[in-house]
Amino acid sequence: MDKIIEVRNLDKSYGKTQVLFNINLEVKRGECLGVVGGNGAGKTTLLECIEGIKGWQKGDILIEGLTIEDDSRHLRRILGVQLQSSSLPNEIKVKEAAQLFAVEHDIDVEEKLYDELDVRRLLNKQYGQLSTGQKRRLHLLLAILHDPDIIILDEPTAGLDVNSKYLLYTKINELKEKGKTILLTSHDMYEIENLCDRVLFINKGRIGKELSAESLLEGDRHIIAISSQKNSLSQVDTMYAKLIEVKGREVYFECSNINACLKELLEHLTAQDDQIRDIYIKKKTVEGELIKMMRGDEQ
Fold it and tell me: What is the percent of the chain with per-residue pLDDT over 90, rounded to a whole number?
């Protein structure tokens, strides 16, 4: 896949406060990239720079090889944005909002979207009368109304009930199947793990690390923390048990196959006449990696 978004050496400040530091990022056409981090990490600011909503002090952002200055109309045509803080006038009706966005992009409203996002029954309601879930579904509809190639979703399911989340997940998966490029921020690690092809971690305005979906979800990926009487595992690195850290008497392994991993470790302990004092097994998750980064364990 060729790259559709490229961010080079991006710095962004608000007054004297710098919030993004030397961000370098490539997004491939057709991939779903998850952007995660704590509150104030810089996720939304990064997306707003990519969208052209916010300016920046240093660096370049290219979309299909073009900057905003090169061809702003083309970029508006291929970008669809559903912001976390999206808001419309309380008096505007849902149908009027859809028609307004359609006129803006010189298109006709694709009626089936009303049904796919369960918006048809809301067409004559005013925006101010909608629930949080109904507003989110409307915002997604407006973001994809003009069939953009790139869709940016900032906390799309925040505050939604289970049914509303299911509707949005279904639509996002359909967009992925159509080859759309999606940038997604969320505090819901379940949706990051299940919707995204790659995860970008941002901490205090800097990219902390990246993980592919395969590194988290394929196979039987676990973390084992184990301590033994003789501490004989501190130098062990086997086919299925990858040594990743030693903290005192606790030794941490990443395992691609939990059964084979345990077998190898137990065989080593037996050969060294060593015995387990304590053992802890945990599934490797995006949330776990995020917590490690925020605590500084990745340093």
Answer: 47
For 244-255, write each residue's pLDDT tens digit.
Answer: 889 888 998 888
Burial class (CB in 10 A: 0-12, 13-18, 19+), 292: middle
Number of structural domains (the chain) is: 2
C-alpha span between 231 and 297 (Å, rounded): 22
Burial of residue 273 (number of CB atoms within 10 Å: 0-12, 13-18, 19+): exposed
Q: Say what the pTM is.
A: 0.75
Here the tokens at position 187 are 């505090």
Domain containing 235 — which CATH number?
Answer: 3.30.70
Phi, psi of 237 (to 5 degrees): -150, 105
The 10s digit of each residue's pLDDT in 96-118 is: 999 999 999 999 998 899 998 89
**Neighbour-count burial of 128, counting CB atoms closer than 10 A to its CB (0-12 exposed, 13-18 middle, 19+ buried):** exposed
In terms of residue numbers, what domain contains 189?
3-213
Where is the domain boundary, 162, 192, 213?
A: 213
